[in-house]
Amino acid sequence: xxxxxxxxxxxxxxxxxxxxxxxxxxxxxxxxxxxxxxxxxxxxxxxxxxxxxxxxxxxxxxxxxxxxxxxxxxxxxxxxxxxxxxxxxxxxxxxxxxxxxxxxxxxxxxxxxxxxxxxxxxxxxxxxxxxxxxxxxxxxxxxxxxxxxxxxxxxxxxxxxxxxxxxxxxxxxxxxxxxxxxxxxxxxxxxxxxxxxxxxxxxxxxxxxxxxxxxxxxxxxxxxxxxxxxxxxxxxxxxxxxxxxxxxxxxxxxxxxxxxxxxxxxxxxxxxxxxxxxxxxxxxxxxxxxxxxxxxxxxxxxxxxxxxxxxxxxxxxxxxxxxxxxxxxxxxxxxxxxxxxxxxxxxxxxxxxxxxxxxxxxxxxxxxxxxxxxxxxxxxxxxxxxxxxxxxxxxxxxxxxxxxxxxxxxxxxxxxxxxxxxxxxxxxxxxxxxxxxxxxxxxxxxxxxxxxxxxxxxxxxxxxxxxxxxxxxxxxxxxxxxxxxxxxxxxxxxxxxxxxxxxxxxxxxxxxxxxxxxxxxxxxxxxxxxxxxxxxxxxxxxxxxxxxxxxxxxxxxxxxxxxxxxxxxxxxxxxxxxxxxxxxxxxxxxxxxxxxxxx
Length: 599
Known about the structure:
This protein is an alpha/beta fold. It has 3 domains: about 5-210, 3-Layer(aba) Sandwich (Rossmann fold), CATH 3.40.50.970; about 225-385, TPP-binding domain (Rossmann fold, 3-Layer(aba) Sandwich), CATH 3.40.50.1220; about 400-599, Rossmann fold (3-Layer(aba) Sandwich), CATH 3.40.50. The chain is about 40% helix and about 15% strand. The longest helix is centred in the middle third of the chain and has 23 residues, at about 375-400.
């Protein structure tokens, strides 16, 4: 910025709610219009199409939230910043634009930091904007209100972090945050706005000119032709090829091309959890029901927007046909990813294709043409045989009607409801509740399944549900373990306050993993893993004006869910299941040292 513009910034003598002021009688110079930091933040966001804010008001951003609403922005106010942050993160995944979370300083910032790190780890574009204490006091550690060097704390957990000290730099700060959040591999960005910034005043026209409308914030990254050819040649040579679709493939919104690539090659595909629905789970090429067979048996695996992290056993071990947990099964890999650093992170990648997923898949389609050889019949038949067997086995489990309900009998109802309402968003978290829902409930459209993602973090449920309803505008079905719900349950008030069409189904077995554990000493304290028996979670939604239902049978659960979707009222269904249902740590028992000792 030039010196004249910087000199124009000065403390505003008007109320925080004023967007501009006109010099009046007795003031030196001709009439002039001024703007301030509050308004410039609002104008910078709106200029870039960011008009929905998730946050929690307080010092020093209370007036900012008021003025945002007065300027036509939608401000969704939560009960805890972490849940607002999770909402912003999943909004970024759904839209491809950075979700915005706004918090107060220090404790509020720290509450939002978990969600920021979650967004960075999951490659969700998000901007955490936090008010902060004054730099000169923080740097001298003089004990300001909620004093904290937030920028330094945020940097290790964000893709980028910026601080704005002068009103004329707000446009640059917002523009840089947007570009950092969505370009290349998306992620979380922190934007620090000290309290002193907001009332700074400057000439309105100079302020307008200081704002930046970001042009092409996530430019296409075209893959190298030789990389595409190498990948296609490797696929052509495969006898047992497999495609793995990750949530990056869903984020790319290249749905038609991804489906064309799968169907034109005839290669079986395995969707990771948040990629379910890119093609319907009932598609004939889906290998989900034969996962334990196809991973170790495939000879060439093409990963599209998926990483060989813990969710795929790092590409090693018995999951992939290795003899030990550290051995490599010998598969050859094609990896489509926007980050070249992702290749070779765990095992050798024989054919990395680096670029944005849409461009890479388009280039692969062009290179494949119409003459790509179908996989050998022996491979397809072997998968079909195991899929048919496992689907039949699942059907047997779903057909049972035990008393009390178990995971399968309850989720059989959810499965039917989702099939009848394919546009609904399914939010899912828990341990057993997550694992069983992922296996039982089919998805039919992309970006409709929203879950814990790469970290497997608990607490995303209600924040995700609010964002899905606000940004997606469709019915939300949230399937929660009773333990997972506890992290964000107070946001039922938020759901009711905004009248959102969210139906929460709590699979309640009275505890973490299960509710039948006892104190080994025989003392009066319950086991650390056990909750209050017979808890009436549905009363929480009723307390805020929503609908609460306790369901003890599949018929009661079905009736309650159907009514919730018909009415679009905030609803919580306390689905009581057998407290003995569930296993320790769900399907990741291998990661739990104590569970290993029990085996």
